[in-house]
Design a protein that fits this description.
The protein is an alpha/beta fold. The chain contains 14 helices and 15 strands. The chain has one domain: TIM Barrel (Alpha-Beta Barrel). Strands 3-4-5-7-9-10-13-15 form an eight-stranded parallel beta barrel, surrounded by five helices. It has a three-stranded antiparallel β-sheet with strand order 1-12-11.
Length: 398
């Protein structure tokens, strides 16, 4: 866990949004509209609305989850028991991560025991598996999992991490991902490898350094050499409001954001879709950004579907918001209340919105991974099974 709250990080982001908005407004670019801003009480009374919402048909879209062992630990859950409980649900697809500093805790040590167990149990449960081989960034906070012995000093802020200046790190990263792929490539349940997490975007507000597209390309080349038979997934955050889009565009303007680079390097582009998140808290109330239905965002999403219409390409939702994103690192867990950024019914609404993208599109979503499964277990343990039951409704009725 970081000592820096998400509120601190996002408030720094708000300042960047303002600067970007001023700069781009002068060029005629749209500034945030009132329809994208919400202000209200963060903790809301729980309802049974999740029971009454219609469930969109999934068609050929495979449904699944991502599993974050470190998040489960932080929530006080038993990691292996949590995964076993989740695997009992009838979804098809699961994403697991090879966390570099966990697998290689010291020079010369290779400790894949946890990942071995998780691949084994997922395979026995009949799931199809995507393994994120990292190495530098892997899904789940804090996203940066490079072992300390592979860095002489922290990565410098405000720069692109280029191969020429960081060859030692690149060599270690490609050696690690190659070793992971070679260990599991004979597992028939594994259907894809993910290289990096939001590969070339800055790491939230903690770090302003970014991997260069050339660094990511070298990693993808190594992954393909280790296993030419499976597709490569790369993912990126799809901005759902003008402020976030302005900030992301400004910070990645030199080489494009992670979705742009994924289209250049990967076979599968994963969309990380968070329709609502808090940017600041004022006592019991929070300010939220929510613009997922705005025309400019829809245009970018449609462009991704056109890209996926070519042979050998896929687009999926690699993270569909199904847990709150408030102004702290861990989602709050209030008794008898839910958080406004993602109530149980919004787990269904977000899924329904993404399934609507398939209508009339030149390609279909190949998969949809719900994000927040560990949080659902925490909520159930504390007397609120609504998130898990909403998830079960989608699986049963779609």
């Amino acid at each position: 866990m970081s000592s820096v709250s998400r509120d601190d990080r996002l408030m720094r982001g708000v300042k960047m949004f303002r600067r970007a908005a001023i700069a781009t407004a002068a060029a005629g670019v749209a500034v945030p509209t009132a329809s994208e801003v919400r202000f209200g009480r963060a903790a809301r009374p729980l309802t049974d609305d999740w029971q009454r919402l219609p469930i969109a048909a999934r068609g050929g879209t495979q449904l699944g989850i991502s599993f974050r062992p470190r998040q489960a630990e932080t929530m006080g859950l038993n990691v292996d028991d949590s995964l076993t409980e989740l695997l009992a649900y009838p979804f098809e697809l699961i994403r697991l991560g090879a966390y570099w500093n966990q697998v290689e805790p010291a020079p010369g040590r290779f400790c894949p025991d946890e990942l071995d167990r998780h691949v084994d149990v997922a395979e026995r449960a009949g799931k199809r598996i995507i393994v994120c081989v990292g190495p530098v960034k892997t899904f789940g906070y804090p996203e940066f999992f490079v072992p300390g012995h592979h860095l002489d000093r922290p990565l410098p802020e405000g720069v692109l991490i280029e191969p020429a200046a960081h060859q030692k790190l690149l060599d270690a990263a490609t050696a690690f991902l190659t070793r992971i792929i070679e260990r599991y490539r004979d597992r028939r349940a594994i259907v894809a490898w993910q290289v990096e997490h939001e590969a070339v975007d800055p790491l939230g507000m903690e770090h302003s350094w970014r991997l260069s597209a050339a660094f990511a390309r070298a990693e993808v080349d190594a992954a393909r050499a280790a296993d030419p038979s499976r597709p490569i997934l790369m993912n990126g955050f799809l901005p759902t409001s003008v402020p976030v889009g302005l900030q992301q565009g400004w910070r990645t303007r030199d080489q494009g954001d992670s979705l742009v680079v994924a289209q250049q390097l990967a076979d599968i582009v994963g969309i990380d879709f968070y329709p609502r998140h808090a940017i600041s808290a004022l006592g019991a109330r929070s300010v939220y950004l929510a613009g997922s239905r705005s025309p400019w965002q829809q245009r970018r999403r449609r462009a991704l579907f056109r890209w996926a219409a070519a042979p050998g390409r896929q687009v999926m939702v690699s993270e569909g918001q199904a847990e709150p994103w408030e102004t702290v690192t861990n989602p709050p867990n209030p008794v008898n209340e839910g958080m406004a950024s993602c109530l149980p019914e919004q787990l269904i609404e977000n899924y329904n919105q993404c399934m609507s993208w398939n209508e009339g599109a030149p390609a279909r979503l190949s998969g949809y991974l719900f994000w927040g499964a560990e949080y659902w277990l925490l909520r159930q343990r504390n007397g609120d099974p609504r998130y898990l039951r909403a998830f079960a409704r989608v699986l049963e009725e779609s």
